[in-house]
Specification:
The chain contains 1 helix and 5 strands. The protein is of the alpha+beta class. A 3-stranded antiparallel sheet has the order 1-2-3. Strands 4-5 form a two-stranded antiparallel sheet. It has one domain.
Length: about 100
């Protein structure tokens, strides 16, 4: 948590001790603890952004795979075939659309 008083910035970390919230002073903006705090927050933010991007890419890949499966079924049907439990079978005459 960053608190600005006048021109100075002070850094605190919120923790719970025996169930009660406490704020621990980390120092001014120029202190090493404060810089480490800022760096950790930035790393967490970058990690979160990467996770969101990977989730979005995973969703897009799933959509593309579903489209490919649908196209595969359509091509098999056009060729007079169908897939059943990893087997490609030939359509029988009575199953053709009239």
């Amino acid at each position: 948590m960053i608190i600005q008083k006048g021109r100075s910035k002070y850094y605190y970390q919120s923790v719970r001790i025996k169930g009660k919230p406490k704020s621990i002073y980390l120092g001014k903006a120029s202190s090493p603890k404060a810089r480490a705090y800022i760096q950790r927050k930035e790393e967490k933010k970058q990690h979160s952004n990467k996770e969101q991007e990977l989730e979005r890419l995973n969703h897009e890949v799933e959509r593309a795979l579903n489209v490919i499966k649908l196209m595969e079924r359509a091509y098999l049907l056009l060729a007079g075939l169908y897939q059943r439990k990893s087997e490609i079978r030939k359509l029988q005459e009575e199953h053709y659309a009239q």
